[in-house]
Design a protein that fits this description.
Strand order of the largest sheet: 2-1-3-4-5
Strand content: 15-25%
Number of domains: 2
CATH class of the largest domain: Alpha Beta
Radius of gyration: 38 Å
Oligomer: single chain
Structural class: alpha/beta
CATH superfamily of the largest domain: Reverse transcriptase/Diguanylate cyclase domain
Number of strands: 10
């Protein structure tokens, strides 16, 4: 039997305190193309696998031939130690013993050995046992690689799904949440406010004379204007449960949970002032020399029978009033449905 073609450069560690035996076994295995190393104690064997540069190049070892009787530790205990070490646990171990005591063999197999050889053994038997152990190791390695690839695929798919999920709820231009996510969130926060007896506020915002700006300066400039204003909204509205969304075109919506009308109006004024301080030149606006916004503010402590659309309608009506009154201003909604409970 000649294993050289298939087994060349595979590393075998021989652990036996009989130096003469180790030498003879090494010569025999070297002739088959194996790289061999030896240790005469359990401590030296463990250190060699963990720290010897020659053994650490690539895998620590492809196979361990381990004598059951060692001066410092039974071979079964060393085998158990190998199997408890994540770096060494997949190395196949063949126990070598000069005893026919079945108890020792059971201990060896219980500790994780894959096979045994009874001394003295013949070269043909040795190579057959080694070949069998290495085939087992190949299967283990293939299974680990398959599981690694499966785990990597699962991780990649999870990451891609999260990215797709994120894209599905974000506006691609501004990076704000989109209308779809706004609708879902408003309904959720509306129900939560009704359960908790809390106040929910909504801001509807429109960029003044944006169509004229877009037509005059071009769509790239219009896109940049939208992104800069979105940045202002993100900076000012930054509580973890608040939501800023691009509602459509140049219109935005902001959900402010647990916020009364007065507090929401304060946020709206801060947004209006901050957008003006961007000093985005608007040479064709009849309202201001710079880009401005109009805001409608509504608040509600939802009661039984109230619907999210009540809040949207109220904020929309307030926004319309801001536009009708000359734009670049904030208007509070008139009481609608249960909204008289939310103005405190």
């Amino acid at each position: 039997m000649n294993l050289q073609a298939d087994q060349a450069k595979l590393k075998v560690l021989i652990v036996d305190d009989d130096s003469h035996f180790c030498k003879i076994l090494s010569i025999s295995l070297n002739a088959e193309g194996f790289q061999t190393s030896s240790a005469d104690s359990a401590v030296k064997a463990y250190e060699k696998l963990k720290h010897d540069p020659a053994m650490r190049a690539g895998a620590p070892a492809d196979l361990v031939l381990l004598d059951y009787y060692l001066p410092d530790l039974p071979g079964s205990e060393l085998c158990r130690k190998f199997k408890a070490d994540p770096e060494l646990q997949d190395i196949p171990i063949i126990i070598m013993t000069g005893s026919s005591d079945q108890k020792h063999l059971k201990e060896a197999f219980d500790a994780g050995a894959v096979d045994y050889l009874t001394k003295p053994f013949q070269r043909v038997e040795l190579l057959a046992r080694i070949s069998s152990a290495l085939r087992l190791k190949t299967k283990i390695d293939q299974q680990k690689e398959y599981l690694r690839e499966l785990s990597e695929t699962a991780r990649r798919l999870y990451k891609e799904n999260r990215s797709l999920e994120k894209l599905s709820i974000l506006d691609s231009l501004t990076g704000l949440h989109n209308r779809r996510y706004f609708d879902v969130t408003l309904n959720k926060e509306f129900q939560r406010a009704r359960r908790n007896g809390a106040t929910l506020s909504l801001l509807m915002i429109d960029i003044d004379a944006f169509k004229a700006y877009n037509d005059h300066y071009g769509h790239p400039a219009g896109d940049e204007c939208l992104k800069r204003i979105a940045g202002v909204f993100r900076k000012i509205v930054n509580r973890s449960n608040d939501l800023v969304a691009r509602y459509g075109g140049e219109e935005f919506a902001i959900i402010l949970p647990d916020t009364p009308l007065t507090g929401a109006t304060g946020v709206a004024e801060a947004l209006r002032r901050e957008v003006a301080t961007l000093r985005i030149h608007h040479g064709v606006s009849r309202i201001s020399e710079v880009v401005t916004i109009s805001v409608g503010v509504a608040a509600m402590a939802p009661q039984a029978g109230d619907q999210p659309n009540n809040l949207i309608t109220a904020a929309d009506q307030a926004l319309y009033q801001s536009k009708a009154a000359g734009r670049n201003q904030v208007t509070q909604a008139h009481p609608v449905s249960s909204m008289h409970n939310a103005s405190a």
